[in-house]
Amino acid sequence: MRRLSVFAIIFIFAFVVIPNAVLADDPIVEVISPNGGEVVSVGHTVTIAWNASDVDGDLDSFDIQYNKSGGGWIDIDLNVAGGPDGSFEYEWEVPDDVSDEVLIAVSAFQAGDAVADVSDGVFEITKRNPEVHVTYPDGSEVLRWNDLIQITFEVNDPDGANEINLNEAYYTINDGYSWNFIASSDGDDFDIFWTIPEFNSSDCRVKVVSTDHTGLVGEAESHSNFTLTGPSESEQHFAPGWSLMSFPVIPDPDHNTIEEIFGDDFHRLFVVYGWSPDRGHFVPEVIEHGQAYFLGGTQDATVDIVDYDVYAEATHELELVRGWNMFGTPWFQRVDLLDAVVTVGLNGDAMSFEDAVDFEITGPVGYNFFHNTPDELLPGQELQRYFEHQELLPWRGYWYMALVDSVVVTIEPTGAFPTPMIDGADDATPDNWHIDFIGLAGETADVCRVGSRETATAGFNPVHDWPQPPDAPVENPIRLYFDHGAWAASAGQNFSRDIRAPFAQGATDEWTITVSTVHPTEVTIYWPEVSETIPSGNGTYFEVSITDTETNEVINLRENESYTFDANGERDFIVHVESPLSVEDKNSTLPNNFVISAIYPNPFNSTTVVNYQINNSANVKLALFDLAGREVAVLAQGNVSAGSYTSVVSGASFESGVYLLHLTSGGQSQTEKLTLIK
User: Fold this and answer.
1) Which option is the CATH number for 464-583: 2.60.40, 2.40.230, 1.20.120, 1.10.10?
2) Could you report the per-residue pLDDT of 222-248, keeping only the tens digit for each?
């Protein structure tokens, strides 16, 4: 009964504003704290303080309760021991009961009399995470591999208790894409040491995560990115021979001549060449950041730069001219071309790298020439040849193709997460297969590829058909290429890849490969792992051979691994591929639709391929019109049987713009838009 009367008193005090009516012989109680406006955290200990007295003697006991958001009263502790008149305190562990409207009530009891007091105002129960601040490394630092540094940080408990149980440190090398654990320390130990790992990146940050005794977590990162680098990124080993290289740092402009940069690294003859479209290979006066150079030497050498600045820009613009361009990787870390943004002209719209390739604006890969690179096509051999890359590496230089004028490619550094090559999967199926041919003359080599892709065409397709970069300045270069001068004028005449649309079961196709050398030499052509890159299953066993047109010798690619001959100048080889005739092909049905089924690429720069289907024997016409309705070209005309057909559109004689492709057959017609970009 006594408790019930006290609750009634508390209710009145809490929600009805009236004078504190207390009888002369009743106890007197006054809540001191929390008394309104305080903020307390879950799990922390808070002191509840009050004054109490009674004219009749010592106080018997106290009840302590709290109320949140006007709800019912919740017991904290009942029958807390009383005592003589004076001040009283109770240590309260704040429960996980978050609210911004909390009241404390203290009830005093003496000889059957009772009275209560409530906080004058509401206070707040909250979950406040520890506050963390990383002070080192905090951004812009350059940290060297294998150095031992101390990560410094500050941790503050918002409630002043500083009851931190655990601190953990992590680092990222890819701008937060992933985090790696460094070490941990006890809550009162702010000493975490880190041995700098061997990564190349300027997208690094440190993160500290602190946990208090209640399990609440606070974290903070470095204010901005810093760089990890080390001896192998301020120096690079080069084997004898030629390498297309660049500097991922900014040389001291007062000491950047060839002799100042390379002179102390070579003890024998060495040569450095730059390149430009109008001059070809030339000896540069100074070495510049972001440029590429052919470095040739007769000995092993380690090139280093002592005085340099790190390139701190987040992006880098490659200003390209039509044709071949040569540039270097400007950062310590890799660059993924698939992340690049491409614009054409001063006010051109930005497009993705893949769109720029599809629209015949740029080539799909960069070409690096680097000696002493382990060769994935011929394991165990280290050759000097061109390697195709969409992931650009530090210290490497690259050839890159622009198919139109005034192209700007904006690149940015990336983490160590290479993306797949843009030319598609390498699975060996009847519609997706390839054969690599590698020609070897001494330690110099070159590679070309024939094959089929579902997205390829009979003509030039920039995704799959790759132009051949200019010769490296080696003594006796060997080149393997396909002569396609009519494909794309900007890409040149020679191509290192000729990938075509799938051909029918039982059909054959042929490619002509030219092998070229400057001086007489012995050449060996390899076709590694051919059984894994062309179909070999039941009903899909391709017959493949190569014919030496000078001797008429036919070599079965499945039964032989290589072919050696004495080269002197140019020599043609014919690759013959025959697919088996399958049951499905014998019983294949004719097309059911009259349709322009595909135009690729669209937009296009030089040529595009139109695929269309005719469902009945009829007189067919495929014509091209401008937007004024004038017929500008007839691509196909005549009586045809039902089936699938292909026509190639050349843009050589047309202006840039939008055209209409019109297909008619009897009473049927279809029109599609076609865009030409030059």
Assistant:
1) 2.60.40
2) 998 988 876 544 678 888 889 999 988
Fold held by 589-676: Immunoglobulin-like (2.60.40)
Side by side, the strands of the sheet bearing 86-93 are 28-33, 45-53, 86-93
User: Domain locations in the chain?
Assistant: 2-126, 131-229, 264-411, 464-583, 589-676
Q: Are 245 and 265 in contact (CB under 8 A)?
A: no
What's 131-229's CATH class? mainly beta
| Cβ–Cβ under 8 Å, residues 114 and 108 | yes
Half-sphere exposure of 164 (CA within 13 A, CB side): 28
Burial label, 372 (beta-carbon count in 10 A; 0-12, 13-18, 19+): middle
Tell me the C-alpha to C-alpha distance, in Å, between residue 625 and each of 329, 658, 670.
45, 9, 13
H or E stretch including 101?
A: strand 99-110
DSSP 357: H
**Average pLDDT value over all residues in the chain:** 84
Q: How confident is the model at residue 216 (pLDDT cuts 50, 70, 90)?
A: confident
Q: Which has more pLDDT, 355 or 504?
A: 355
Q: Which residue has the tokens 């003594």?
A: 475
User: Any idea which of 139-143, 336-340, 360-364, 563-567 has the lowest mean pLDDT?
Assistant: 139-143
Instruction: Tell me: pLDDT of 426 over 70.
Output: no
Alpha-carbon distance of 164 to 80, in angstroms, equals 31
CATH number (2.60.40.10, 3.40.30.10, 3.30.160.20, 3.40.640.10) of 2-126 reads: 2.60.40.10
Q: Give the confidence band of 43 by pLDDT, cuts at 50, 70, 90.
A: confident
pLDDT at 15 over 60: no
